[in-house]
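Hi team,

Below is the intake form for MFS transporter from Flectobacillus rivi. Please confirm the fields before the structure is written into the shared record.

FORM ID: S-0412
PROTEIN: MFS transporter
ORGANISM: Flectobacillus rivi
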Amino acid sequence: MKAVQEKNRVIATLLAFAVIPMSGLATDIYLPSMPYMAKYFGQAENSIQLTLSLYLGSYAIAQFFVGSILDAFGRYKLSTLSLFLFMVSFWITAISTDIYMIYAMRVVQGILSAFAIVAKRAFFVDVYEGEERRQYLSLMTIVWSAGPIVAPFIGGYLQEHFGWQSNFYLLAVYSGVIGVLEFLFSGETIRKKTAFNGRNLLGNFKEMIATPDFFLGLLVVGLSYGMIFLFNLSAPFIIEHQLGYTPVTVGYASLIMGIAWMLGGFLGRALMNKPFLPKIQLASLLQTTLILAMYISSQWLQNLYTLLVFAFFIHLAAGFTFNNYFTYCLSRFPKIAGVSGGFTGGVAFILTSGLSYGVVNMLHPATQPDLALGYFSMGTFVMLLLTTVRIGKLHPSVS
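The structure came back. Fields below:
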């Protein structure tokens, strides 16, 4: 077993941070290309939107099992292999002319993402302890936000100059380069492997799901990130079709939303030592107020600027809430870091995928008021959950 060497610890940590944004890059880089992909494949908009939901769904489901596999067989070999398979799958996606092959590759990419990302989440729990671990996990959440920030911005220019396929060629190159560096400089971090046992795995799942504060956190995390994907699924069609802008504009819009999400993460990290529930409940109240203002004002004023201003602050609040609760959930069960990390991501992304795609198919958001209604359905649910916490005292450890 090739253990990570102390002299390479800094490099291995930087590589872990480089892998973490992969899930965001794989989901968001082709957002500006969605309308063009629909035309290229001769498909309806929701058929292309399904490629995103398939990725998220497979990524989520795989995480239930990936964590225990990584705890049993180690992090290093499996995460490195997944990066090289990533490269192959993105290349196949780029050259495909069949939408069903795209669907298949997106499912494969979701599974590979689970191996790579869960392994790197566990890396920080394996290597660091105490307050240092908490700081790294919070920073990891912020770095993870970099993917959705830069991906659509890059994707808009790639679409404008080279077409939708160039998005996946770039992802293939990125995966290959990181895979080579990972192979050379990283290593195994798990201290004690745990034999894979289906009964124990189910027992761990039951323990986690029966822990009220942890389960509540999963719901809040899924809903908060679901708002981001609601925008990702809707905005390219609203901005390009209704408002008449180009894919580059979609890229800039997504960049602005990514900055909002990251600022929310930084704010969450800066206020980490403040009382947990009061700050989350205040953020939720402010977010719901902004959503109502967005819907009401859109009855007489709708343009790109009002769309982005309201969405910016809604996403900032979502990023703040996500950062706090995701960090909390990841550190809740340190003795089974791989399993708990996988379970946290799995449940959260199933909720994210199902809720965002469900709202899109129910509302078919093509205008700013439609998007506001989608935000409202998720934002009010978060506020109701947090009200339940206050009433039911489900969160004694951080209230």
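SUMMARY LINE: The chain has one domain: 6-190+197-392.

Thanks, M.
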